[in-house]
Amino acid sequence: xxxxxxxxxxxxxxxxxxxxxxxxxxxxxxxxxxxxxxxxxxxxxxxxxxxxxxxxxxxxxxxxxxxxxxxxxxxxxxxxxxxxxxxxxxxxxxxxxxxxxxxxxxxxxxxxxxxxxxxxxxxxxxxxxxxxxxxxxxxxxxxxxxxxxxxxxxxxxxxxxxxxxxxxxxxxxxxxxxxxxxxxxxxxxxxxxxxxxxxxxxxxxxxxxxxxxxxxxxxxxxxxxxxxxxxxxxxxxxxxxxxxxxxxxxxxxxxxxxxxxxxxxxxxxxxxxxxxxxxxxxxxxxxxxxxxxxxxxxxxxxxxxxxxxxxxxxxxxxxxxxxxxxxxxxxxxxxxxxxxxxxxxxxxxxxxxxxxxxxxxxxxxxxxxxxxxxxxxxxxxxxxxxxxxxxxxxxxxxxxxxxxxxxxxxxxxxxxxxxxxxxxxxxxxxxxxxxxxxxxxxxxxxxxxxxxxxxxxxxxxxxxxxxxxxxxxxxxxxxxxxxxxxxxxxxxxxxxxxxxxxxxxxxxxxxxxxxxxxxxxxxxxxxxxxxxxxxxxxxxxxxxxxxxxxxxxxxxxxxxxxxxxxxxxxxxxxxxxxxxxxxxxxxxxxxxxxxxxxxxxxxxxxxxxxxxxxxxxxxxxxxxxxxxxxxxxxxxxxxxxxxxxxxxxxxxxxxxxxxxxxxxxxxxx
Length: 669
Description:
The structure is a single chain. Among the domains are: 2-103, 2-Layer Sandwich (Phosphorylase Kinase, domain 1); 105-302, Transferase(Phosphotransferase), domain 1 (Orthogonal Bundle). The radius of gyration is 32 Å and the shape is elongated. It starts with a helix and ends with a helix. Strand 3 and strand 4 (44-50) form a beta hairpin. By secondary structure, it is α+β, with helices and mostly antiparallel strands. TPR repeats lie at residues 348-381, 382-415, 450-483, 484-517, 518-551, 552-585, 586-619, 620-653. InterPro entries: Kinase-like_dom_sf (IPR011009), Prot_kinase_dom (IPR000719), Protein_kinase_ATP_BS (IPR017441), TPR-like_helical_dom_sf (IPR011990), TPR_rpt (IPR019734), Ycf3/AcsC/BcsC/TPR_MFPF (IPR051685). GO terms for molecular function: ATP binding; protein kinase activity. It comes from Aerosakkonema funiforme FACHB-1375.
């Protein structure tokens, strides 16, 4: 490795970045200081070389895709003033490179060495600085996962705190990382003492970062590392107050930041900032302490090379993500179990990780092959059966998938993801009662499982159990407030229950979360139509059509409302557009007949009703409406036949019964 890095010195990458010195190296890459020869003054930057040597060629394309995805995350994050910018990323000779901003400063761990403490005002200022950055990070759908003193730099230029180490971040739907230096197994991103319980369990949340920041602030106040602090035996809460001189108000905020259970913790960085602002307004006497320490008083004025060494370590983890054979959307297994399995049967973990990666590559048959080999060696590990079931589910081999999920829950009865997947496959098999029971078990084990509540709601809706469906969707949005599909479905079900005003509120929430959601705009317009707010409804349909001009439903609903406004020609044009897009749209053919009838185009109206009846043989209303037009044309026997057909299809069609009775009386029959 040393020979490889020495050969890099003096080399120019892409004809632009000239390597001038090595900063650090790891198992999969090295970090260098380089000069950017294309810019005036040749400013320095950091170049991280990510080694791809010995990578399975079949995985290289996956590595490229993951590298590109991660780079785009880093670009987005780098737009913030207090996050290092990613200046470039590229591949050269099958090796990947990141070019990042060169930060001058000193990390927080250098300031809060053992026994050295910040005062309260300094901690408040520190928290406000980092929390403002976290608001931005979380809005990008990213969890940092490794906030700690060494990953926070005080920038020499202005004393602001810069959040680093984003090589370790993962977006919510990211893959699990494993290192090539190990045989396999799940690697937790984070540092001991700064990770809350849910992160240790492999399920970090946005407020996991709040916990880590709170522990960092407590360390700054006490001078004591989190690992050295005691915790309550029963509650697991950290015992720290006696080690610090701090007001009760700030202590209460920090306590809430580091609550053991995520539900009792602050749910967002904005919530913490708001409480800090309230606290700050009471500390007028401390205002002069809020100034950050002046760097002119520091004896160390140097480039922040420690930070760059950290970049080396972190991007090593990042490289691991690119090249290791492991991919899954959620890790619900105990890290202790994984570690034990990795130590005792590393070949099983290797096969499991191969299976996960092959699923990511959509090579499902090969994935099943790897997982079957793992099962032959270790048949009692539930995650193998879970992943095997997922691959079979993708292949639509539902019965086989169900057997795999059954085996997973037999081995681990409280395995929520397996119960959840079991519910999905049972729904695919149209075994809805069993699917509901499986999803009920999922949320019994893990109440905070929005996806399970959502699928449960969909099944209840399909079973026309609308009240229960609403409650299930409500649970989904309780645990995931921005669950746009759940808000949309709440609107649909509430409309079924004739609760149109509540439906409108839910649909407003859906389009607020995701403005580019044409289906939600259509349902919103339909709801406004039911509330007789026709002009607002048309505006909503127009919004949907701007997003998707080929939405047959939007054209149909727009035509329906225009008919209510007696704008028949415009309504007809919309309905014909809907039929042009979706020729088997029975309801559009029916409404087209209604409009043509209003325009006194009776023959065309009859043809339209006939087409609706052909497409939907049980369309009683189409036969009834056809009877009305035939009666207007004085084709009484045909009208009677149409009424008879309408009543035959739906014996409770009272308007058809009444019209038939009146026509018979009129004819003296």
